[in-house]
Amino acid sequence: MPQRKKIRVLECIRQGKVGGGESYLLSLVENLDKTSFDPIVLSFTDGPMISKLKSLGIQTHIIYTEKPFDRRVWKRVRALMTNERIDVVHAHGTRANSNVFQAAKKLKLPLVYTCHAWSFHPDQNYFVKKIRIASERFLTGKADVNVCGSVANGREGRKLFRDFNPRIIYNSVDSQKFNPYGKYKDIRTELGIGEKEIILISVARFTLQKQTLKLIQAFKLIADKVPDIKLLMVGGGEQKEEAEKLIRKWKLEDRIVLQPFRDDVADLLSASDIFILPSLWEAFPIALLEAMSMGKAVIGTNIDGTPEIIEDRVNGLLIPVENMVEHIVDAVTLLAENDRLRKELQLKAIETIYGKYNVDVLAKENEKIYYELVANAK
Fold it and tell me: Which of 289, 342, 349, 341 is nearest to 315 (CA)?
């Protein structure tokens, strides 16, 4: 009996650095059924994600551009799809889709567009936001299947785009990699943090969206209330230099530990007690899922897809974005001083991830889409 031909899927991403969409792609290609699918990755920049994919034996290609709708690369993208005999194109994020849709349509290949977060944000000026909305309307119209990572994201799209009917596939986490019962490095010794000290951790870019400066402002007040707590901030970004200045100004060098982006996030989370993500907007934050999978008590803001993950005082704490500093202080102090509540939230967080947001579900739901599109293309 002849062997069934594998479906060759070109998974496309804007960059090789590791972020939310990139983590999703990694989880997807790692967990696709390799007896039926042959994933090939196209990234528009190099970075640690590419190295990780190569170590997993995943075929990768880099066609460099940091611009959306960059017509200079479209011909090369089309040639890649032809040479690799691609059956389905899957674009992860706006910039990737803007640079692959034309080739997919020219070659009559089915196109999946997963919007990990809309490119328009609340902080953009009126004209920039209008242009971004128009771009998303155009790109969603070019896709054969649109996927959103949260109900909130899908609802926003339905308001703005005619005939927009997305599939909802929740972002998920690899509960084997982020296993609360696994063995991890001794991060506390590495960073000079005592075993009895409480670690509040933030794994996020230093940007306006993530409100890292507000977190430092709040921690200044928390440090006065809770003597045995330290803040571990992991990431880079345009506001990091300003963050460092605030830490020196308020003499918090011995209470706030700064680290660059690291690929040992599970080790960092294992050493920590409370995870915080005080964002102004989030589609469906993978970092939050990773922290919950590791059994951390989590704090998130009551925006977009985050309330779909956190049920307040059941598996985490939700705080409003208004008067954020005050609410961060109250939430962190509560969890730092209430061991019983912290442990209850930690256990419920694990239950939530293992019951609903695992990578097996993510892979199977995407596989269904690929099967459907290939069948319809015949």
Answer: 349
Tokens of 77: 């993208």
Question: How far is C-alpha 137 from the geometric centre of its chain's CA atoms?
Answer: 22
Tell me: pLDDT of 57 over 60.
yes
Q: Which domains does the chain have, with CATH numbers?
A: 7-172+358-377 (3.40.50.2000), 187-356 (3.40.50.2000)
State the pLDDT at residue 4.
Answer: 66
> In this structure, what are the phi and psi dihedrals at residue 198, rounded to the nearest 5 degrees?
-85, 130
d(Cα 83, Cα 81) in Å, to the nearest integer? Answer: 6
The number of C-alpha atoms within 13 Å of 314 and in the hemisphere containing its C-beta is 8
Q: To the nearest whole percent, how much of the chain has pLDDT over 90?
A: 79
Q: Which residues contact 201 (CB under 8 A, 6 or more apart)?
A: 231, 232, 233, 234, 268, 269, 272, 274, 275, 276, 291, 296
From the list 142, 62, 145, 68, the residue with the least C-alpha distance to 102 is: 142
What is the C-alpha to C-alpha distance for residues 138 and 198, in angstroms, rounded to an integer?
A: 48
Q: Do you know the residue count of the chain?
A: 378
pLDDT tens-digit series, residues 285-310: 889 999 999 999 999 999 888 999 99
Question: How do beta strands 88-92 and 317-319 pair?
Answer: unpaired
Over 70: is that where the pLDDT of 3 sits? Answer: no
1 pLDDT tier (thresholds 50, 70, 90)? very low
Q: Which residues pair with 230 in a beta bridge?
A: 199
- For the whole prediction, is pTM greater than 0.90? no
